Amino acid sequence: MRRWMILIMALSAIACLLPAAATPVLVTEVPVEEPFVEPTGTPGCQPSPAVTLEVRRIDPNSVWVHASGLQPGEIPRVIYSASAKGEGMYGDAGEFREGADEQGEFSIDLSGLELGSMSLEGPYTATWDIRLIHARGVACATITLP
Questions:
Q1: DSSP character for 4?
Q2: Which regions in the chain score pLDDT beneath 50?
Q3: pTM of the predicted structure, to 2 decimals
Q4: Which of 98, 93, 104 is nearest to 51 (CA)?
Q5: Rounded CA gap, 96 and 93, in Å?
C-alpha cells in the first residue's frame, strides 16, 4: 500500500510539471513606421528638412550663423564646440531677445572662436561644430578656423 501511495504522489508531481493544454494565442505584429532621418556627419543632429543652417567665416575668430525655415518669433539656442591639439572649448551663445523674423530667418555673429587662450604653440586650425537647436530638431554645421 505504501508503494502505491508513493507511486501516486510521484505521478501527481510529474503531472504538475507538465504544461497544461492551453488555448493557442494568436499574436500579430504591427510594423512601426519610423520617419527616415538623413544621416549627418555630425552626431546628435536631428535635421528638419524645412530648416537650413549656413555658417560663413567673418575673420579668423568669428563666424556668421544664419538659419532659415524657422517659425516666426521662434527663439533658437546656438551652441558651439571645437578641439585642437588635445585642447577643447565649448560655448553657448546665450539667450536671445528676439527670435526669427516674419520670414523665419535668424542670424547672429559668433565671435571669440579661438583656442589661443590655451597653450597652443604655432599655427593651428580648429573645426568648430555649430548647432542651432529649434522646436523641430537640431541643425548642424562645421567650419574650420582660422
A1: H
A2: 35-41, 118-120
A3: 0.62
A4: 104
A5: 8
